[in-house]
Amino acid sequence: MRIKKLSTIVANQIAAGEVIERPVSIIKELVENSLDAGSDSIDIKLVNGGKSLISIKDNGDGIFKDDLKLSLVKHATSKITTSNDLLYLSSLGFRGEALSSICSISRIMISSIKNGEKQGWQIYNEFDSMDTNIKLSNILEGTLIEVRDMFYNIPARLKFLKSDKTEYINVEKLITAYAISNPHVSFSLSHNGKLLKKFNRVTDNNDVEKRLSLILGKRFIDNNSYFKSTFEKIVLSGWVVNPDINLPSCQFVFLNGRVIKDKVVNHAIKQAYKRYDIINQNYIIFVDLPKDQVDINVHPSKYEVRFSNNRILHDFLVSTLSNMLIKNHKIKNEVSLDLSNDNQCTSIKEHTTTNYKTEEDEKGCIGQQENIKLESLNSYPSLIDAKRKKLEPSRIHYFDAYERNETQNSLTNNFGVNPENRIDNNILGKPITLINGYCVMLTCENRLKVVSLLKVSKALCAQKIKNHGLESKPLLIPYKLNFNELVSNKQRDYMEVLGFKFKLLENYLTFTHVPNILKDKKLDQYLEEFVRIFCLEQNFIFKNNSDLFENFTDFIVKQAPKINNLSEAIHMIACLESEFEQETQVILDTVTTELNLEELIGQNLL
């Protein structure tokens, strides 16, 4: 057979198969659009499980008349404009595929009025055609979308749908999830003319539990434990139901407010419960982390995601859930750590999983400025060892393995080295506090030491360049900058020596490769300033490559954000000790200023 190009209609119907599987797929896309439009009231109506009719009405911002026709065009969206926007997504939708896919497998009608406009408009597709027409609408607020006769033009897909009841149950679960993650939005769900679910919005954060009680029932509220735990920039929060209580299945996971079904997260949850042979597994988990640390653009359904560091999130989640089960539930033969008489934080998670913090922990640690990682507290070895002896061998193995794994992952991610999980107290002393994000104060005998984190960072950066060079790493998505200047051959040489590869076309400087030392950093924070210094300042001349590398190292250090907590600072110093193992004392002397404690006390400076 000869190769031939498919028609637009057939191609769209095939592509729609990735986005639209069943009625709940359509509802997910449309509800997310309503939420992105700022709606605080969303009404969903179904007929025959959504096969015959799906109607969604919201009170959101509405759509301009001129945008209505464009809304049904593939890859047309108001959510993003450039590829760089994919790195910092704040909306639930962004691909511009949903409405065009729905249009290709059903009969769709959209009525909408833009906020501030006096007249609404309606668009609909013709029978057996992708052609659309626009006419006046009497809609008074927001947007109304009606989807009729799903898969009427693809009978092969229609026969794979389940019974009306099953399709409705799938929709009900989804709306329940959205109602949990969006307490300030009202939801109603009707099926075959009957109102079956109605969740009124709450205006006060203190009423969130009332909303949960309305959604999941009073038994859920009476038998759950709330948790909130933080590690680096990852925040885990939610509710875990007492496993001794048998409740209807309640398992929800949200990432930055988005419903997800992720293999890494699900495996972590199963692992935490499996360790205690718990059958009743009910939970609501919210995962919040910086947008640039997660890739949502993995699959059109947007259920699957990709994390920049799977391992840290996985182990943090396992540890947090394990601690909740130990602390709040009756687990046979389980012993938790008790350091309540020690002037340290009393939560097991801080002594077994680095610097995780919870709201309860903070209340119990008034006056303690920073969380210090367990591996850095070598001044308390006997205390920690004594408490650890109470744990079963399997627990010790697990938590020790986690400490090594997490610390090495974090340090490798930031500096490319795998240090020992400690700071040598014989050399530096005990960390006391972080000063303004740029220095660490330590005490050793009767001396105070101040370590400059800028100098530490520069030493690490310079050593990494010395050991590994500046290899070019390709960018998954090329980074574009507006640029109207000429790049001289000399400046081009500088950039290529440093590991940058780029193209200069149509007033854009497009980076395709960056040095490996910048690979995991926020490029918009570094590249604009780099171009300004290294491309626009014509008098920026370097004597040789060593001079170029030194200036580039200074540039990276100055652009780096300041350290937020003592744990990060301890990591950095531990890296320095590991990287310069043979000459640790010499290097530490270059980054450390020593103060005499007795002299300071004598002069009433302390």
Automatic annotation (TrEMBL):
InterPro entries for this protein: DNA_mismatch_repair_CS (IPR014762), DNA_mismatch_S5_2-like (IPR013507), HATPase_C_sf (IPR036890), MutL/Mlh/PMS (IPR002099), MutL/Mlh/Pms-like (IPR038973), MutL_C_dimsub (IPR042120), MutL_C_regsub (IPR042121), MutL_C_sf (IPR037198)
Keywords from the named record: DNA damage, DNA repair
Protein name: DNA mismatch repair protein MutL
A molecular function (GO) term: ATP-dependent DNA damage sensor activity
A cellular component term, taken from the record's GO annotations: mismatch repair complex
Stated family: Belongs to the DNA mismatch repair MutL/HexB family.
NCBIfam families, alphabetized: mutl (TIGR00585)
GO biological process: one example: mismatch repair
Native source organism of the sequence: Paraphotobacterium marinum
Top-level division of the source organism's lineage: Bacteria
Lineage: Bacteria, Pseudomonadati, Pseudomonadota, Gammaproteobacteria, Vibrionales
Every DNA mismatch repair protein S5 domain range: 212-326
Record carries keyword Hydrolase: no
